[in-house]
Specification:
mainly alpha, 267 residues, 10 helices, 86% helix
């Protein structure tokens, strides 16, 4: 029976992920264009404000990290894109501290959203999923192949908070859920690095330094390599999830047909 199940990727799920990917790419392009315009038009002013902001953050000391983690938890819980907050962390704290703050805030937010969906918002989340057949199909597939599809889901352009609420409402176990959430860390680190690189580019433009030095070249290479790796991983993950959804739908249909055949034979 298993060999007869059709495993071609579900076109509905593929279209769903394609729309999400288009929105994400457009958002990144808009952010890059805005940054380039700001640096080109008012580079000195941008650097001056960055310096003032960094001084204010430094004055807060460790409390600035605590406040940012709280902001990230609260923001992502109401669907503020974690990518936006990750880039901001790179601008404010640099790469190392920014990544630490984002990862801690992301995991705490994932835990909060899981508990909200599991204990207080399950019925509401399920009603919302019922209006989004693609998400409902993905949720059903996750329940059949719990950990593997959770890992793949973290590599797609689906908003992490949406995934967290969906998985929490589905009743997946907390341990595998948090473990799968760690798969998103490289993407978060890349977004933090993007903010850090943007801050460095603004200062470089303001100083009037001509040409690219080894540090700038290494930053560009690192960004390109990271983006390329994530794009490839995301493409494979989207295809695998669409295939799993199609296979599960075929399995359900085959089981239904077998049950109907047994009922007819019994008659």
């Amino acid at each position: 029976m298993r060999n007869t199940i059709k495993r071609n990727p579900d076109p509905r799920v593929q279209r769903f992920f394609a729309r999400l990917l288009t929105r994400e790419v457009l958002a990144y392009l808009a952010a890059g264009l805005l940054l380039a315009t700001a640096i080109g038009v008012a580079g000195e002013e941008v650097v001056r404000h960055l310096g003032a902001l960094e001084s204010w953050v430094a004055g807060l000391g460790a409390w600035s990290l605590v406040a940012f983690v709280a902001l990230l938890v609260a923001g992502t819980t109401v669907f503020v894109p974690v990518s936006l907050l990750s880039i901001l962390a790179g601008v404010l704290f640099g790469f190392e501290l920014g990544t630490l703050a984002v990862v801690v805030g992301y995991l705490l937010g994932a835990l909060l959203q899981y508990e909200l969906a599991r204990r207080g918002l399950r019925a509401r989340v399920q009603r919302l999923l019922a209006s989004r057949p693609s998400l409902l199909a993905i949720q059903a597939a996750v329940l059949r192949r719990e950990f593997g599809l959770q890992v793949l889901l973290r590599l797609t352009p689906l908003n992490p908070a949406t995934a967290n609420y969906m998985l929490g409402a589905s009743g997946v176990r907390l341990g595998p859920y948090l473990l799968a959430s760690l798969v998103h860390v490289p993407s978060l680190a890349l977004e933090v690095y993007l903010g850090y690189a943007g801050r460095h580019a603004a200062r470089l433009a303001e100083s009037g330094s001509a040409g690219l030095h080894l540090r700038e070249l290494s930053m560009i290479v690192a960004l390109c390599a990271g983006v390329s790796a994530l794009v490839i991983a995301s493409r494979l993950a989207r295809k695998a999830i669409a295939g799993a959804v199609a296979a599960d739908a075929a399995a359900v249909e085959a089981t239904r047909d077998a049950s109907a055949g047994s009922s007819d034979a019994a008659r």
